[in-house]
Task: inverse folding
């Protein structure tokens, strides 16, 4: 019997002990990870500044509780990304959700001008502009808390999967164009200080639950100080939407925004993306492509409302009418209302 194999109960006992030990180790590791994550959250909360602008949506929310939920966001919550940062969907409860934009590195939260700009953004309330509900600034990162736009961006509607399955009808395109024009006009003429967007494009025009257009990302551009009149020397934007004078003068202006808005209208009309690789490879732009189509069909221009007036976009932005407030609506109506008829 001395050379016989150990009884089965011995093996079972060893396996049980090993299982219990492994569970203890896993539990300790999970607890350690939880403590580390909690410490990171607490350090972030103590080392940063959270500001919430009062509104019916935020008045019942605790800034600390909201921040804790924000810190738990993962890649599964990402709903978009762009040149300024990554956007997450933050669900607070069954009736409340926000879009949280985590800004890319390089935004110094110690910059008082940056914080002043955020406070100005929070004061802006317009039915065609995305509302900023709050922000968080810290040495590690900066967060912007916006109202959530459930229908996404115009870019996805024009060029995404839905563009094939259920393309936008002309009435919807017209409504979106007019709404975006109103939002941009408000930034240029009614905000104090006036605001140059500097990156008007279809992905920065979002759609709310009623499919109304909302201009977004405007506050991440340079705001005009009263003594700067209508010119900012900080240039930014997206190739394909930029006006020609950007590459000559290096200046951003409200007229440049109007030019970019005109490109968005051409995008609405043609269904072509201004940043399409074919344009880049040919060294051309959507505007020059449309102009070429106009030249080809010049003999029929008076008979085709789809082509009439397209040369409005062929002039440099510096030649646009000075009365910009009227130009938004003139531009929109010239193209879309006639097309709708």
Result:
């Amino acid at each position: 019997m001395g050379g016989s194999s150990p009884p089965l109960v011995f093996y079972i006992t060893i396996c049980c002990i090993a299982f219990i030990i492994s569970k203890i180790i896993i539990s300790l590791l999970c607890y350690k990870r939880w403590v580390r994550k909690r410490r990171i959250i607490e350090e972030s909360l103590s080392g940063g500044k959270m500001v919430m602008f009062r509104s019916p949506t935020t008045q019942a929310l605790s800034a600390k509780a909201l921040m804790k939920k924000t810190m738990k966001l993962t890649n599964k919550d990402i709903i978009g990304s762009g040149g300024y940062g990554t956007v997450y969907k933050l669900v607070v409860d069954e009736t409340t959700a926000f879009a949280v934009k985590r800004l890319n590195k390089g935004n110094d939260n110690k910059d008082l001008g940056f914080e002043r700009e955020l406070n100005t953004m929070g004061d802006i309330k317009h039915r065609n502009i995305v509302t900023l509900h709050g922000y968080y600034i810290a040495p590690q990162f900066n967060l912007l808390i916006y109202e959530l736009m459930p229908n996404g961006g115009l870019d996805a509607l024009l060029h995404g999967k839905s563009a094939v399955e259920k393309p936008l009808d002309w009435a919807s395109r017209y409504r979106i164009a007019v709404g975006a024009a109103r939002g941009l006009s408000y930034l240029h003429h009614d905000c104090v200080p006036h605001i140059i967007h500097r990156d008007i494009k279809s992905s920065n025009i979002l759609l709310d639950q009623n499919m109304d257009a909302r201009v977004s990302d405007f506050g991440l551009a340079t705001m005009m100080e009263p003594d700067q009149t209508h010119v900012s020397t900080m240039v930014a934007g997206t190739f394909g939407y930029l006006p020609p004078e950007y590459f000559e003068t290096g200046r951003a202006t409200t007229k440049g925004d109007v030019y970019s808005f005109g490109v968005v209208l051409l995008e609405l009309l043609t269904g072509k993306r201004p940043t399409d690789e074919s344009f880049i490879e040919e060294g051309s732009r959507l505007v020059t492509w449309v102009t070429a189509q106009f030249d080809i069909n010049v003999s029929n221009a008076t008979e085709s409302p789809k082509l009439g007036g397209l040369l409005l976009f062929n002039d440099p932005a510096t030649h646009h009418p000075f009365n910009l407030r009227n130009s938004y609506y003139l531009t929109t109506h010239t193209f879309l209302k006639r097309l709708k008829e």
About this structure: Strands lie at 49-52, 78-81, 85-91, 97-103, 132-137, 142-147, 205-207, 213-215, 231-232, 252-253. The chain has eleven helices and ten strands.
